User: Fold this.
Amino acid sequence: QVRLVESGGGLGQAGGSLRRSCAVSGVSGSIFSINAMAWYRQAPGKQREVVARIFSGGRTNYADSVKGRFTISRDNAKNTVYLPMNSLNPEDTAVYYCYADFGGYWGQGTQVTVSS
Assistant:
């Protein structure tokens, strides 16, 4: 059974930093390493949107709203993807989800709240 387990801080202040992690289990390292992983978020009253995606070779892309502030990375040896978030602002408040392109699996989602 494939599981995506998210962890990391959920409360931050404007200008501060938080770090999200997503550990994937139930899948071989080879499957994990050749597939893209992504972080999405959904703010109240808004559609879920992709925040960042990292491909198998390490190529990344980001939503314009987080470019230069968030950095997605992956550790294929640990089947884990990370999302350090810097220069936070209240507009980053949302439920954040980890997503695996293989099979369309989602993490449990975690509320991230940034206070001004």
Notes: The two ends are 40 Å apart (CA to CA). The first strand starts at residue 3 and ends at 8.
